[in-house]
Amino acid sequence: MILAGDIGGTKTVLALFDGRAGPLMPVREATLASRQYARFEDVLQTFLGDRAPGAIAAACFGVAGPVVDGRVVTTNLPWQLDEAALLLTIPTTRVRLLNDLEATAHGVLGLGPESLYTLQPGRSRTGNIAVIAAGTGLGEALLVWDGSHHLVTASEGGHADFGPRSEIEVDLLQFLRKDHVHVSYERVVSGPGLRDIYRFVRATSGLTEPAWLTERMATGDPSAAIAAAGLGSEDVNAMRALEIWRLRGRWHRAEDPPPARRRSLRGVVPQQGPHGRVAGRHSNPGRPGVTDGFAGRSPGGARFDEEVAAAE
């Protein structure tokens, strides 16, 4: 039996796989709200219960944050994970921690064309692949082509400085700096980022927020409520916020691997589902860059679920 998991700031997905009869098959899986637990070990206890020692051959977890020497402090949670410490909690002799997008990149290699939604058609090339996931944060990984196969490498590129390319983006940056010492792309291209963009639009538009939207945001996920209102053309501010959120497309372009070795870009968009179709395609309303022509001919696709990392 193999234990696998994808640990994110919003939820943790855990699954047990059995490979004794051939390909790995899921035996049990669960999705748990991360912020309801003080430690990851508590999540494991809830999921595993009282399994007998030795029942798990190996365990591997993708974690949102940089993994160094088998340890990681999660980016959007107050959790500290350590491979050696987890051996005391999990009935196994093998535990491995990976960056969550590093794990997802391994899973992307196993996807067929039918698993991807095309955001931008283009001419496929053999070369590097960028993997980008906008959720609670903005995760990134690279699949580097070495001439015979892809090598997976983790990245924390989502924390790079947000670089505005239009007057409205300059105003957005100044607005975000009132609340954040460092404004990265993750502050914009993420679920919480959509909420902050909506606050910016509402503050500058002069339009009153409707009571029904205030209630939806207070009783559920604010970003999901804003996205739904924008997609449904129910609120002007929400519609405008979604349009600005199209920065996601230009962030994809900015983080493409070097053009000479680039193959394609694949975005994994958990939770948002079809919302990614609005915000996910390449866009460049500002001045064209020196590689825009190349990027515009490169294909891009999205996977609309969160099972890729855990399954790998």
Question: Would you summarize the structure shown here?
Answer:
31% of the residues lie in helices and 24% in strands. The chain has helices spanning 40-48, 83-86, 100-108, 167-176, 191-205, 211-219, 222-231, 236-244, 247-254, 275-279, 292-296, 307-311, and strands spanning 2-7, 11-18, 25-33, 58-63, 71-73, 80-82, 95-99, 117-120, 128-134, 138-145, 150-155, 262-268, 300-303. Strands 8-13-12-9-10-11 form a 6-stranded mixed beta sheet, with helices on one face. A 5-stranded mixed beta sheet has the order 3-2-1-4-7. The chain has a two-stranded antiparallel ribbon with strand order 5-6.
Structure description:
With 312 residues, the protein is of the alpha/beta class. Among the domains are: 2-104, Nucleotidyltransferase, domain 5; 190-244, no CATH class. The chain contains 12 helices and 13 strands. Helix 5 (191-205) crosses helix 7, helix 6 (211-219) packs across helix 7 (222-231) and helix 7 (222-231) crosses helix 8 (236-244). The chain starts with a strand and ends with a helix.
